[in-house]
Design goal:
This protein is an alpha/beta fold and about 300 residues long. It has helices spanning about 10-20, 20-25, 60-80, 95-105, 115-130, 175-195, 200-215, 260-285, 285-290; strands spanning about 1-5, 30-35, 45, 85-90, 110-115, 140, 140-145, 150, 160, 160-165, 220-230, 240-250, 250-255. Strand 12 and strand 13 (about 250-255) form a beta hairpin. The protein binds nicotinamide-adenine-dinucleotide.
Length: about 300
């Protein structure tokens, strides 16, 4: 693994810390660098570079800075590692993935974002806990925004192959109350962790590890990642949001089209509209981006 940071000391600090685990865990060797050229030949590049909000800075300002960052990073990667799969993790992940797709010279299937994979994992965990079942046996997708407007696809949710509605609700609760509580906890999970430890790390790291593993081993696992929505979803052209895809060699091999019910369709359209506003705000020329008519984008989540 080559670990790039523009500040070599930061790359060294992270890389050396991981290196110290190798005699104990037999994981990969991590090489720190501040030179993009060292990424040559990489099969997958994970982009986690991200500006964080400065005191007094608006979300729009932050979006603008991160948009510039993605243009810069993709330009460097297109020279250094043009055939790599590029996985965007930095927030707001849907805006940055869409921008990356626009500026890169590589084919679209090689570029995607971590999307709502972490949110899906969080909801599976919450439901497993509520219903007393292993989260691995809970099947449900969270789609749309990685954030407040994300949509749980309840119509397809099962535990051990049994539709949620056919299962006995946990004692003292209705199914509706369990679903609401689990989704609310999922939505609040990133900020709740960040409030307590300052940032999130293990959940997103596990999500990234699964994605990278699926590409490297051509596992063809299905994950809700940030991609341009298939036309069958009826969203505006180019809209990028979290949707289930087959991830394997070459990145995105195929996008699944979920048979959403009418409520879920409406919620996905609403989520996509929020993302469109954020994208428009991030890419608007400076004069327009400060106009009062611009709808503020949603908070980036973790
Ligand atoms: N998608 C998800 O599910 C998810 C989850 C957690 C975090 N995140 C996002 O991941 C990003 C990183 O989070 P973090 O906690 O590691 O932040 P961090 O501040 O610890 O790290 C950001 C790194 O980016 C580097 N950087 C900034 N500008 C750069 C540039 N122009 N070129 C190269 N490097 C640059 C900084 O040097 C720093 O090392 C954030 O955007 C965060 O919101 C996403």
């Amino acid at each position: 693994v080559v670990l790039y940071d523009r500040t070599l000391a930061r790359a060294e600090g992270e890389a050396w810390d991981v290196d110290d685990t190798t005699p104990l865990l037999q994981e990969a060797d991590v090489r720190p660098t501040d030179d993009y050229a060292e990424l040559a030949g990489a099969a997958v590049v994970v982009v986690t570079a991200g500006a964080t909000q400065r005191l007094g800075e608006s979300r729009l300002d932050l979006l603008g800075r991160n948009a510039g960052l993605v243009r810069e990073v993709l330009g460097q990667l297109d020279s250094a590692a043009p055939e790599a799969v590029v996985l965007l993790v930095s927030n707001p992940v849907y805006v940055l993935t869409r921008l990356a797709l626009e500026v890169t010279s590589r084919p679209a299937h090689l570029v995607f974002g971590s999307g709502t994979l972490l949110d899906t994992a969080r909801l599976r965990y919450q439901l497993g806990t509520a219903f007393g079942a292993a989260p691995q046996d809970v099947q449900v997708h969270v789609i749309g925004e990685h954030g407040d407007s994300e949509v749980a696809v309840w119509s397809g949710a099962t535990i051990g192959g049994v539709p949620l509605a056919a299962l006995p609700a946990p004692p003292g609760m209705t199914l509706g109350a369990v679903k609401d509580a689990c989704l609310e906890t999922t939505r609040r999970r990133g900020p709740a962790i960040a409030e307590r430890k300052g940032y999130t790390s293990y959940g997103v790291a596990a999500a990234v590890a699964r994605l990278v593993g699926s590409v490297l081993q051509d596992e063809q696992r299905i994950f809700t990642v940030s991609v341009p929505a298939a036309p069958a979803y009826g969203l505006p052209k180019g809209a990028v949001c979290g949707l289930p895809c087959v991830v394997g060699q070459g990145g995105i091999q195929r996008q699944l089209v979920l048979p959403l019910d009418s409520t879920e369709r409406g919620l996905l359209a609403r989520s996509a509209a929020i993302l469109e506003d954020a994208y428009a705000a991030a890419t608007a020329p400076p004069a327009a981006s400060t106009a009062p008519s611009v709808v503020p984008p949603p908070a980036s989540t973790r």
